[in-house]
Amino acid sequence: MNLVQAKVFSVLSIGVSSFLTGVFPNCFVNQGRSPWPLVLSSLLCFGGGVLLATSLVHILPEVKESLPDNFKKYAELFYCAGFFILYIIDEIIHYAYGNSEDEAASLLHDHGHNNSRRNSYGTIRNETRASRQLSAQSFSRAQSDSALFNEQIADQLSINSQPEPSSSTQTANIGLLVALSVHALLEGLVVGTEAEPTKVLLFLGAICSHKLVVSFCLGVKLASSSSISLQRQFSYILIFSGGSSVGILVGMAASTIHSSVTSYVIPILQALAGGTLLYVTLSEILPKERTKWHQQHEKQLAGIFQLISVAVGFTFMTFLIYYID
C-alpha cells in the first residue's frame, strides 16, 4: 500500500466506521440513562492516553526533526499555538452559545421545582392530619424524583468534550456542530500530513481509538435524549464523522505543494495538530471524565480505573511508536 492509497483508505475507513459506530446505539438504547457509564468512561480515558502519547511522544519530536534548521527553535511555539487555537475557539463558542444552554437548564430546573411546590400545596390543602405523614413521604419522593430528573437533564446537556445544546435553541446546535467539526478536522491533519504509509496507518489507529469511542458515546447520548429527532441525530453523527476525513484531505492537499514550501508548511501543520490533540486530551477528555465520577462518592474506585485506562493507552501507543520507528 503506497502513501496515497493509505490516505484514501484512512479517509474512507475513519468516516464510515465513526458514522456506523455513532448510529449503532439507536439499535439498543432507549430514552433514559446511558448503559455501562464506567465502561464508556474507561474507553474514553484509554483513547485519551493514546492521544497523549501520539501528541507528546511522536508528533512533537518529529516536528523538531522535520523543520528547517532556522525554524527548529520555534517547534514548541507552533505546538503550543495549536493548543491555544483550539482553546480560543472553545471559549468563543462558549461565549456565543453557552448562555442559551444555561438558561434552558435553569428553566427546566425551575419548572421541576414549581411543579413540586404546586403538587405539595395542593396535597396539603386536601390532606387530613392523619395522612400528613404519608404526604411528607410522598413529597420526599417527589423531591428525589425531581433531583434525578434534573440530573438526567444535566447528563444529556453534556456530550464528552462538548455540551449538547437545547433542542429549542438553534444557535446552540450551531455551536455544537462547529466545535465537533473543528476538533475532528484538526485531528485529521495528523494523518493527512504524514509522509510514510506505515505512520499514516499508525495515526489512523490512534485517531480511531479515540474517535470511535467518542462517536459511540455521542450516539448513546443522542439516542437517550427524547428531545432530539432521529434525523437530527444522524446529522450530528454525519458531521462529526466527516470532520476527520476532511482534515485528512486538507493535509493531503498541503502535501502536494512545492517541496520548498512543504518543508515549512507540513511540519507547522503537524505541530498545530499535535497541540490540538494535547488540548482535547488534557482540557476536555480527562478533566470531564474525572470530574463526572469524582462527584459520585460511592464510586471512588472509578478514578483508579480511569488512571489505569489512561496509562494502558499511553503505554500501548508509545510501544507502537517506538516499534514502528
From TrEMBL:
Q: Tell me how this protein sits in the membrane.
A: Multi-pass membrane protein
Q: Which GO terms describe its cellular component?
A: plasma membrane
Task: State the Gene Ontology terms under molecular function.
Answer: zinc ion transmembrane transporter activity
Keyword tags: Membrane, Transmembrane, Transmembrane helix
Cellular compartment(s): Membrane
Methyltransferase is among the record's keywords: no
Keyword Signal recorded: no
- Transmembrane portions of the chain: 35-57, 77-97, 200-222, 234-255, 261-280, 301-324
Signal peptide residues are none
Quote the Pfam families the UniProt record gives: Zip
**What is the protein named?**
Zinc transporter ZIP3-like
Name the source organism: Diabrotica virgifera virgifera (western corn rootworm)
